[in-house]
Amino acid sequence: MSKGPEIFSNIGKKARDLLTAGYSSDQKFTVSTYSGPAGIALTSTAVNKGGLSTSDIGAVYKYKSHIFDVKIDTLSNIATNLTFSDVLPSTKAVVSFKLPDYNSGKLEVQYFHHHATFTSTVALHQQSPVVDASVTVGTPAIAFGAETGYNTTSGSFTKYTAGISITKPDAYASVILGDKGDTITASYAHFLDESKRSAAVGEIMRRFSTNENTFTVGGSHAIDHLTLIKGKLNNHGKLAALLQHEVIPKSLMTISGEIDTKALDKHPKLGIALALKP
């Protein structure tokens, strides 16, 4: 793939991940096994969410640049993602579907160029197929993009979004106009070390229809090469913190919690995740 601008769905992702990745109020246990760098990876996951327990088993097979990903859950749902890279030059195709929901199929095509990227997604829905398309232009340092969705049955646009991102070695900024122009979100992340495990981040979102502003600040800090802490607070009083520790090589234990500082009588949310890898 070319060294061009990021795809539109990745605009703002670096800041979003700092503010959201790893935080959870569920209890999750994951075990993974591998049969080699280019073989099959098997994953078993059990999740307790609000007293409801679910589990799934997944398998990922890599052949050259192609990836076959299948997951089966306790309700006998089968989720499949097939990724084909470089079948055509600078192109990636992703086919996804869930069974027994035969109308859940999607086909996504991504094209990468030195100064532009293009994605198109077709929902293989028999009654009301929807087509999404996005384009970004620029360089790895600065990118402008837009995304739209169109319902071919009703002849109406389901969404339209625009955004810009600026990327530097130690900083990342983005502005996204979304929800059909109803919201604007600006974010900025500054990385404090080369590994980008220590960072400060801020995000502000305004919803024009309700005149509501949401401002969130957060950050992450690597205490050492095994332990990472994160925290965030927004203007609505939601305070969250996370501790992640590598208990054994490649295996992580994550403990996260959230409290509402404006309603301390409410029970705090607590999540624990353990991911074991060979």
Automatic annotation (TrEMBL):
UniProt keyword Transport, yes or no: yes
Pfam families: Porin_3 (PF01459)
InterPro entries the UniProt entry points to: Porin_dom_sf (IPR023614), Porin_Euk (IPR001925), Porin_Euk/Tom40 (IPR027246)
GO CC terms in record: mitochondrial outer membrane; pore complex
GO molecular function: porin activity; voltage-gated monoatomic anion channel activity
Superkingdom field: Eukaryota
Alphabetical keyword list: Ion transport, Membrane, Porin, Transmembrane, Transmembrane beta strand, Transport
Compartments where located: Membrane
Family: Belongs to the eukaryotic mitochondrial porin (TC 1.B.8.1) family.
Annotated PANTHER family: MITOCHONDRIAL OUTER MEMBRANE PROTEIN PORIN 5-RELATED, VOLTAGE-DEPENDENT ANION-SELECTIVE CHANNEL
Protein name per its UniProtKB record: Mitochondrial outer membrane protein porin 2-like
Source organism: Linum tenue
